[in-house]
Amino acid sequence: SFIGFKRGFMNKMIGLLGVLVMLALSLVLASNFAEFLKNRGLIYPSIYDSVFEKMQAVVSEAGEDASTADIIAKALNIPSLFASFIASKIEATPAELPALVAEKGGTYSMRGIAFLILVFAFSLVFIILKILANTLRKNSIIQTIDGLLGMALYLLIYVVIISLLFFILNILVTKEVITGSTLEFIKTDLQLDTDAFRISKFLYNGNLFNSVKELFS
């Protein structure tokens, strides 16, 4: 399509894969990057000290009947669901609780911070790649090749989307969600009960998603 030629293959691939790759890499690397920051005394000490002080204050005031989850929820001012999750990871006496919760809270917080830092860093990388792609496209030969590949990519995207829609339609018909006159219209329009060739019938019966479904069925 013209849009594919104009935007080009490189820009579209960077756009398509950018978010997925960025999130995947950030998730995979977040834990190690958090440890890297923690081992160098960055951010973690201030989080640890803050949580420790809040936990100590609540533990000293809490009665004997107070559960670990209740203490954590009150000290950190978080929903009981999250407090219960943290409490399930901890076995400690009241005296040990502040240090352990501070360690756990600091660790989880560092992973979240590390993830956000990595997302920001990878975002900058993909912005640079887009700038580089646009610079390369100033060459007429590269622009033509990239445009043609872009057209092919857009065509592939359209085929995948249309195939997915027909796959969903196939499931709705098979599961008898669609019945009556609507079902008859579909059968007639797609020539499902005849040997006549229709591209729409091919996409309905034999598209990639159906093949994948049959492979795992």
- Low-confidence segments, given as residue ranges, are none
Major sheet: none
Order of helices and strands: HHHHHHHHHH
Question: Helix- and strand-based class?
Answer: mainly alpha
Q: Please state the overall shape, judged from the principal axes of the Cα atoms.
A: flat
What percent of the residues sit in helical stretches (DSSP H or I)?
A: over 70%
The termini sit apart by: 36 Å
3D structure, described in words:
- With 217 residues, the protein is mainly α.
- It has ten helices and no strands.
- The longest helix has 40 residues, at 97-136.
Give the arrangement of secondary structure elements:
Blueprint: H1 2-7, H2 9-39, H3 44-61, H4 68-76, H5 80-88, H6 97-136, H7 140-174, H8 180-190, H9 199-206, H10 208-216
Helix pairs in contact: 2-6, 3-4, 3-6, 4-5, 7-9, 9-10
Provide a quick synopsis of the model:
The chain has helices at residues 2-7, 9-39, 44-61, 68-76, 80-88, 97-136, 140-174, 180-190, 199-206, 208-216. The protein has 217 residues and is an all-alpha fold.
Question: Which tags fit this structure?
Answer:
217 residues, mainly alpha, 81% helix, flat
